[in-house]
Amino acid sequence: MSSPQLGESLQRLTISGSNRGLTPESINAIPAFLPNLNFLSVPGDMVEDSFFIILCHVSPPLALEVLEFGFPCNDLKLSFETKTLISALDTGLASLRSVGFLEDLVSDERWEEDEEIDKALQERVKHRGSQPGAESRDDEEAGVYYI
């Protein structure tokens, strides 16, 4: 993962929940080594608040447009708070357009929190679209989705 060529050319990365010995620290290292990814899918239980706190201090922002929380390694639960993800949207995740969740990870409370994320992503798309010189993209792709 620390290869300079890989960091420059890799655009999509999916990490399986079947990886043994995977830790949240491994997930936290991805943005440092692969800042040009535009799609990242990771086991949902391996992302902690620290991932988003680190991203709040990343400059320039990552190229990441899609972040997916997939099949977990150990626990069918997410280990981060919605507010930490939302706080990273204005900094290291400024390019993020979509967030995906494995349905098995989503509780009733989580559904409500996902609406907050969806609203924040939709508002960003509207704001970007109203700026002069903004690129035209498919607005239907922006927001929260479930896998």
**Structural class by SSE content:** alpha/beta
Helix content bin: 25-40%
> Which CATH architecture is right?
Alpha-Beta Horseshoe
Low-confidence stretches: none
CATH fold node name? Leucine-rich repeat, LRR (right-handed beta-alpha superhelix)
The order of strands across the largest sheet is: 1-2-3-4-5
- What is the makeup of the main sheet? 5 strands, parallel
What separation lies between the terminal Cα atoms? 26 Å
Radius of gyration: 15 Å
Quick one: CATH class? Alpha Beta
Oligomer: single chain
Strand runs, count: 5
What global shape is seen?
globular
Q: How many domain modules?
A: 1
Query: Order of SSEs, N→C?
Result: HEHEHEHEHE
What is the number of helices? 5
Strand content: 5-15%
Mean pLDDT: 88
Biased composition (Acidic residues): 137-147
Region (Disordered): 123-147
Keywords:
Leucine-rich repeat, LRR (right-handed beta-alpha superhelix); 5-stranded parallel β-sheet; alpha/beta; 147 residues; 35% helix
Account of the 3D structure:
Residues 137-147 have a biased composition (Acidic residues). Residues 123-147 are annotated as: Disordered. This protein is 35% helix and 14% strand. The protein has 5 helices and 5 strands. The protein has helices at 4-9, 24-33, 49-55, 82-88, 108-129, and strands at 12-14, 39-43, 66-70, 98-101, 143-146. The protein has a 5-stranded parallel beta sheet with strand order 1-2-3-4-5, covered by helices on one side. α3 (49-55) links the parallel β2 and β3. α2 runs parallel beside α3 (49-55) and α3 (49-55) runs parallel beside α4. It is globular, with a radius of gyration of 15 Å. The mean pLDDT is 88.
